[in-house]
TrEMBL record:
Annotated signal sequence range: 1-18
Identification of the protein by name: 6-phosphogluconate dehydrogenase family protein
Top-level taxon of origin: Eukaryota
InterPro entries: 6-PGluconate_DH-like_C_sf, 6PGD_dom2, 6PGDH_NADP-bd, HIBADH-like_NADP-bd, HIBADH-related, HIBADH-related_NP60_sf, NAD(P)-bd_dom_sf
SUPFAM superfamilies given in the database record: 6-phosphogluconate dehydrogenase C-terminal domain-like, NAD(P)-binding Rossmann-fold domains
Gene3D superfamilies: N-(1-d-carboxylethyl)-l-norvaline Dehydrogenase, domain 2, NAD(P)-binding Rossmann-like Domain
């Protein structure tokens, strides 16, 4: 079967991933990537790289037999699939791969809905921030029919990602792993925020703490620390966050709801969710998922803004 690849969703993650995919297709002499987005102007870098824009998701589905999505919320994915399922286009043999963070029940519902039309759904959330996406070094947690996973694997390894974690055929499992991973990441950010506020209040200072974090725990946690010390937790309004606080709150709601349903608790996630929600109330939506640090500062009697955040532009 001749493969025509499509992409929908060009946020900070999706654009970098799609660009890497288009470059790969071009290098391999394959048909160019087709793409769409709610705002098509965001795809100009893709078009400049040789990709082909489509007016909307329905047109993308008509044209392509493998369709990637990277969207913000479960509702967006549900709406996209409803449009694809309801416009009369045959979906027989098509493969849909969602790389977003969605609820396991949303993944299961998508798989069931598409299966009735002869299509396949792969739940494939990714681990890594937008710079990692741009570098093609994401980790993909993939679940779906084995034959479909084998079909799309060459489009991922050494193209958009450095590794694939095979989660089997139950699409709920990859969503669960992603949410569990997010529990860890957001907890790291919370603990680092608390440690930095402690360092500031005790006059230890942040620079040596960050050096220790890097030496002791490696570059990943050091990069999380840098999102605090660099002021990136509250970036300039015209720059935008690396990973929006609103999306982090959405992910935490999924985690907290699943924990409650399954008879466990996530105390650190609860604290982080409340602090990040307060940060959004105080400073608006142009905040990174590290913005619980600002709330932690306020609770300790400090200003929400540190010396490198955007307070100087307000």
């Amino acid at each position: 079967m001749s493969l025509q690849i499509g992409w929908f969703g060009l946020g900070s993650m999706g654009l970098g991933m799609a660009l890497n995919l288009q470059k790969h297709l071009q290098t391999q002499g394959q048909s160019p990537l087709h793409y769409s987005n709610r705002s098509l102007v965001k795809g100009q870098p893709l078009q400049d790289a040789g990709a082909i824009p489509e007016r909307d998701f329905e047109c993308l589905v008509q044209t392509c037999n493998i369709i990637f999505t990277m969207i913000s919320t479960d509702d967006v994915l549900n709406d996209l699939l409803s449009n694809a399922l309801g416009n009369g286009t045959s979906l027989e043999g098509k493969i849909f791969i969602d790389t977003s963070t969605i609820h396991p029940d949303t993944s299961a519902s998508a798989a069931e809905r598409l299966s009735k039309k002869g299509a396949t759904f792969i739940a494939s959330p990714v681990f890594g921030a937008s710079p990692v996406a741009a570098a093609g070094k994401l980790i993909f947690a993939m679940a779906g029919p084995a034959s479909a996973l084998e079909t799309v694997k060459p489009l991922i390894l050494d193209v958009m990602g450095r590794s694939i974690i095979n989660m089997g055929e139950d699409v709920r499992k990859s969503s669960l792993l992603k949410i569990c991973g997010n529990i860890l990441v957001i907890s790291f950010m919370e603990v680092l925020s608390e440690a930095h506020v402690f360092a500031e209040k005790t006059s230890l200072g942040s620079s040596q703490l960050e050096e220790f974090v890097g030496n002791m725990f490696g570059p990943v946690l050091e990069s999380y620390s840098a999102r605090i010390t660099s002021g990136s937790y509250a970036p300039p309004l015209d720059q935008g966050p690396g990973f929006a606080a609103a999306l982090a709150c959405k992910d935490m709601r999924h985690a907290l709801n699943l924990a409650k349903t399954n008879g466990t608790s996530l105390p650190t996630t609860e604290v982080t969710y409340n602090r990040l929600s307060k940060a959004r109330e105080f400073a608006g939506e142009c905040l990174d998922s590290a913005a619980m640090y600002g709330t932690a500062r306020q609770e300790a009697g400090l200003e929400f803004w540190n010396g490198k955040s955007r307070q100087g532009n307000e």
